[in-house]
Amino acid sequence: MLLEIDDLAKAYRKGARANDGISLSVAAGEVYGLLGHNGAGKTTMVNQVVGLLRPDAGTITIDGRDVIADPGFARRACSIQPQATLPINGLTPNQAVEMIGRLRGGRADDVRRRRDGLFEALDIGEWARTDGARLSGGVRRLVGFAMAAVAPGRLIILDEPTNDVDPVRRRLLWTQVRALGDEGAAVLLVTHNVVEAERAVDRLAILDHGRVIATGTPAQLKERVADDLRLELVLEPGAALPELPPFVLRDVGSGQRHLATVAASAAAAAVGWAEAAKLDGTFEEYRLGPATLEDVYVELVGRPDALSNGNDAPASDPATGLEDARVRAA
Amino acid sequence: MSALPSYLLLIRWNALRMKGFLPLAIVVQALFAFGIVVGYPLLFPELDPRTVLFLATGAPAITLITMGLVATPQMVAQARTEGSYEYMRSLPVPRILHLLADLTVWLVIVLPGVAFAILLGTWRFSLDLQVSPLIIPALGLTSLTAASIGYAIASVLPPMAANMMSQVLVVFVLMFSPLNFPPDRLPGWLTGIHAVLPVQAMGEVLRGTLAPASFPLPAGAFLLLGAWALGSFGVAWRVMERRG
Fold this sequence. Notes:
Number of strands of chain B: 0
Helix content of chain B: over 70%
Largest interface: A-B, 29 and 24 residues
Shape of chain B: globular
CATH topology of the largest domain in chain A: Rossmann fold
Strand content of chain B: under 5%
Shape of chain A: globular
CATH architecture of the largest domain in chain A: 3-Layer(aba) Sandwich
Oligomer: heterodimer
Distance between the termini of chain B: 27 Å
Distance between the termini of chain A: 34 Å
Helix content of chain A: 25-40%
Strand content of chain A: 25-35%
Strand order of the largest sheet of chain A: 6-7-8-3-9-10
Structural class of chain B: mainly alpha
Largest sheet of chain A: 6 strands, mixed
Number of domains of chain B: 1
Radius of gyration of chain A: 21 Å
CATH superfamily of the largest domain in chain A: P-loop containing nucleotide triphosphate hydrolases
Structural class of chain A: alpha/beta
Number of domains of chain A: 2
């Protein structure tokens, strides 16, 4: 395994245990998802891998080398796209990506060729010579990805790479993330966007309160909910949610949008109930489908707000968070 | 990548990032210089030659010191808030190069404003200063010390506190430091404080090199500044290397 993390623990001064015995490993060529809500300990873990934070306990090795003892090696081995978009005011994407590639040790002509290839693949070439101050958030995020990918380390850490990116370029971005793995790098993908992660990662770990609560491939994790279906309900404006029938195992969300889990054996009953409610004007629309990784996530973490980024949705309003995640995933 | 190309790349990175700030820096320094050279004389019923010399040499000193102590911490605090300080720390480049590149760009940015302050003073008071070649190390050391202290403040304190601290320092430098007036006008307790702080020494090396015919150039001031520059550079470097 290229990256091995064993029993990693980190507490902040106020006593909060940000990482509480995390163990996971990522192989070369693998895209590994790290899922969890805001404050689950994802970024703390990443910062320990790249040597910005010192763990209280546990080990981290990259290619067998102890990077807690040798953080300089970690910086050479890892390239990172941080969660906060790097401001590049005054620099054009061309300049920023080229300079970071060369600071990472790339040869000037190699770096330029790869930069141009990435810009073309991400369809952002038209802004290559625009001052960073005039770029939209999504384009800056894609430039941040190119900065991590232009002279990649053996481990590439991407922290929420798709935030602010439009749906078309998101797909282009996922193709490039996959390509990094196919070229032999280990990719650690930090995200709260469960639906997108499901399609992009080989394996994943779900973090909650600083602990790994599940690991596996998306298919392995979905076995937990193999007998469940998800029923998405959208209420007509002004309509109140009717009493839920007993076959609804769980319901999250509030306001107009609800996400219910029903047993597969109750599929016909669920459609009948929802269709009747649509006809009498309670539901604007409904959708029944197989349970997704998102449903696994909600079941494991137990809180729908876990799906949202705390910056976008107050924790006290779980429904907004859920909706937000789904809109983003669309 | 070896150190020199990395250092040059970081200088280019910083210079491009800060090119928008350069006109602002010149305007702010020019306003400071204008205030001292044109505004301060209004406080005096008549100007004797010695007061004039203190104002003319104090103007570049104050512009240089306030820029280092105020603008540097604000820029470092901003870099920490927006995440670029951490990002640059995650690159496989010796961290001391970041610090050296930041300070190098800083030295260049403050130069036009200082030159303007010197010229404005000599023009306004029709002075014929016999400037010593030692002005170059004096300007370099003053600017480096002020910027290093600013950098260290912003490295140690949380961003908000660093910004407030820089405001307090402006008042101290403008009102309570012997830059525009001789140190013997200070109350005794403040004299003792200024003997160990670098601000008075900054004024002394600039006065002593801008108007060497009228002011002494104490070697001790250079030594004190050197110690402050090294000490604050060391603090900023140590914080940059630290793992939380």
